[in-house]
Amino acid sequence: MIIPKEDLVSFQRWQAGSFDKRPAPAPTPTPVAAIEEPIVTAMEPPEVVPPIALPTAEDIERVYEEARTSGYQAGLAEGKAAGEQATNEALALQADRFNTLIGSLQTALNEFDQSVAEQMLALAIEIAAQLARGVFAAQNDALLPIIREALAALPLHRAHIVIRLNPADGDIVRTLLGEEFAQTGTQILDDSEISPGGCLLQAGSSEIDATIETRWKRVLEAIGTEPQAWLNP
Asked: What's the number of CA atoms in the CB half-sphere (13 Å) around residue 221?
């Protein structure tokens, strides 16, 4: 048994005495403090660890198969979701491009329609102008209704009437209406500033502009297009 150092009170070293002298009386032993016996407690028995069951080859194969299946399903779901997202994004992008293309096409068609309409209107105006020139050139009396309409537009109590005509039209009108105008005092004056097919009536302060330029301008304004100058051939 080992006595702890702090539990020892005192001790005396033993030495052998001399054999020549009387033996000295034995020293009185110093009382030694009672050494307390250590308390020995009963130790619990160690816990018995059950043996670890190692997996078998079938277990490893089963776990591997389960992990592989789970990973496959997870990867399949993730890939499917990613594929659907990519498909939706691609479809949205294509839809945007298609809408942009449709918008551009519609704008181009509108511009084309507007251009065609303007060209058709310009062509119609040109055809009308050609027809008007042809009518005045082919019919000597084509100007007579215009003159009569202009006379009717004058005030009832009108003064002396003067009709200004292109020289080429003046001769025709004198031939057809000279006698009638002579009775009313209407005077016909040749004016090279007046285009063929038109006339300008003056009665005192009143004036009726029936020139072909003015009539042509009114026709174009009536159909809502930009007035264009009458072009003499």
From this structure: 7
